[in-house]
Amino acid sequence: MKEKNCNETFDRLPRRRKDVLELFLQGKTDAEIEKLLYITQATVRKHIGNICSDFGLSEEFSYDRSSKRPALMALFAKYKPELMQGNSAVTADSTVSSSSVDWGEAPEVEEFYDRTEELATLKQWLLEKQCRLVVVWGMAGIGKTALAVMLADEIQSQFDCFIWRSLQYAPALPDLLADIIQFLSPTPNLELPDSVSDRTSKLMGLLQNHRCLIVLDNVETVLPEGHRDDGEYGDFLRRVGRERHRSCVLLNSREKPGAVTLVERETRRVKSLQLEGLKEAAREIFREEGLTDEADWNELINHYRGNPHILRLVAWHVKELCGGRVSKFLDLGTTLLNDELTTLLSQQFDRLSPLEKQIVAVLMQTNGAVSLERVRDRIQPPSSSELMQALTVLKDRSLVEQVPTGDDVQFSLPPLIRRFASQHCPLTE
């Protein structure tokens, strides 16, 4: 877009849209704009998406809506820099250009429920603490990918380059390294070394010379089953966490990689965040679906542990089958388990070790919570330390819950996991 067209388009913007744009250009976050203009963050994102379309970015740039923000910054840094006063993070020289931004397989996020605290924590780790390696982990559907998209959307302009890669189909590490190196390297068709170690060294050199943000989604797919060793990816993650560089690698995973746990104990530049379920913010899902019986909403939220993806599925069923009445759905006394949820949970259960499956079987066959001693007596594991390690893995994957009971600690299965284990897994063989 030429300067004349940019100025004319800016002058034609509706007042509210222009207010949002001016605050955005000053470096305000969506949460800050929400408070200043008394509108929701969803409305802020909608306005910015419309602004991008107004300035023709949907035609000039092929990546999705969320990745057009740095292009919008670049446009105004070039033609109307006076609007960016006070935004020290973005100037005409430092804005990320379209050639240094690659959103890869990142999804479009249309629904995002309040994660203000988590966003603030991650921004502090990546920007203020300049952490080298960060992992966000939690159960499937809890909102890890959406959180990472919103985070990257807000902070990518403060990095020299940004790249998003999904590991959903478990790419071999040499191939992933080659892909990232070719993107970051200024030399086209760079000839790469054959060994994984040498390719990792090549990437580490690039991360030292440039401040890059790399997001790796679905990391659990490249971790070996049983959670005993992270394989070749473990060596890579340990080097990223330990070696000196200016960049950050952000991981999304249903499981916390063992390599991260190890290096996290050694340095403050490696952090991990377990993403919990929504609480009050989950009620927005039910409002959007027009559900009734608000007094019963918290019971439904707690039953599904605040998992936003699962709650959206449940809300749809309540609306379609129970006329939107939550009390009527609760009276059925059932736990929703459709094909989609079965597939998600099957993927997690398939990765369990034999000992972890035995523990789930014992908990499934017992009503209420079970003590560590009772689990040990029923299973007779190789050692108490292996039993405690297996329980820790199950708890970290949100498959088992720890229940404090006075001076003792007991364990139980969440309702959805109990229903799935009893009907779909041959755990009692």
Give an overview of the whole structure.
The chain is of the alpha/beta class and 429 residues long. The protein folds into 4 domains: 95 residues, Orthogonal Bundle (Arc Repressor Mutant, subunit A); 179 residues, 3-Layer(aba) Sandwich (Rossmann fold), CATH 3.40.50.300; 57 residues, no CATH class; 80 residues, Arc Repressor Mutant, subunit A (Orthogonal Bundle). The chain is built from 21 helices and 9 strands. The chain has a 6-stranded parallel sheet with strand order 1-3-4-5-2-6, with helices on both faces. A 3-stranded antiparallel sheet has the order 7-9-8. α7 crosses α8. It is globular. It starts with a helix and ends in a 5-residue tail after the last helix. The relative contact order is 0.08. About 4% of the residues have low confidence.
